[in-house]
């Protein structure tokens, strides 16, 4: 008895079913792969944001004293924040270092000057870092796909300030009051204290993935002054 084979119609139906199953399986695998890539990209961007926060926290905690610097240790600019921090290297006298957080295209970078041991060198470093591209090899990219960067400063007792003139005026006024009290021999415990930068707020708008809407991130650091 001859064995009956598959008809052409049955073969076409089987091939069609296999093709449909293959397409469904491919789409599922593609969705899983894309999802994994998005999660990996999101984790990388989140790690970059954590790195920015950690470095910013360290710079804030080592912010220079306005009294010793004889000027404001913070300068705000359009898409830029300049800070003068103390640099303590083992076996060497204390120095200053100017650091800048700025928006370079769509990337937040941190640039740093070489250590400075006098105020003239600090001023020269600030002039260099104010310029786009200032910092050279010491500029380090931190966060990509950023749209904006801004900052403001809490000056005690003036509160939050976002203008360099107001920051400098508050610091100058407070230090002048403290100097007058010290010269008069009145105890500082009577209520007049040296004005200082107590906190710095960094605001960043960035995307955490391709096609993601911009999100606003905020970091407030206490300076310890």
TrEMBL record:
Pfam families: N_methyl. The chain crosses the membrane at residues 6-29. SUPFAM superfamilies: Pili subunits. The keyword Transmembrane applies. It is found in: Cell inner membrane. It is a single-pass membrane protein. One of its GO terms (cellular component) is plasma membrane. Keywords: Cell inner membrane, Cell membrane, Membrane, Methylation, Transmembrane, Transmembrane helix. The keyword Cell inner membrane applies. InterPro entries: N_methyl_site, Pilin-like, T2SS_protein_J. GO terms for biological process: protein secretion by the type II secretion system. PANTHER family: TYPE II SECRETION SYSTEM PROTEIN J, TYPE II SECRETION SYSTEM PROTEIN J-RELATED. This is General secretion pathway protein J. It comes from Cupriavidus basilensis.
């Amino acid at each position: 008895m001859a064995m009956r084979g598959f008809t052409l119609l049955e073969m076409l139906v089987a091939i069609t079913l296999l093709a449909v199953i293959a397409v469904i399986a491919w789409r599922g695998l593609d969705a899983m792969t894309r999802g994994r890539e998005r999660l990996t990209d999101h984790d990388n961007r989140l790690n970059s944001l954590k790195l920015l926060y950690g470095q910013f926290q360290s710079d804030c905690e080592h912010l220079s004293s306005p009294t010793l610097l004889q000027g404001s240790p913070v300068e705000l600019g359009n898409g830029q924040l300049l800070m003068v921090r103390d640099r303590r290297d083992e076996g060497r006298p204390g120095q200053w270092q100017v650091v800048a957080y700025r928006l370079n295209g769509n990337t937040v970078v941190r640039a740093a000057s070489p250590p400075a041991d006098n105020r003239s060198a600090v001023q020269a470093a600030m002039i260099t870092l104010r310029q786009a591209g200032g910092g050279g090899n010491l500029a380090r990219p931190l966060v990509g796909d950023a749209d904006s960067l801004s900052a403001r400063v809490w000056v005690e007792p003036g509160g939050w300030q976002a203008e360099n003139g107001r920051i400098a005026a508050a610091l100058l006024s407070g230090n002048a009051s403290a100097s007058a009290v010290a010269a008069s021999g009145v105890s500082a415990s009577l209520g007049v204290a040296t004005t200082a930068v107590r906190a710095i707020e960094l605001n960043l708008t960035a995307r955490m993935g391709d096609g993601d809407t911009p999100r606003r991130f905020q970091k407030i650091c206490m300076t310890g002054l």
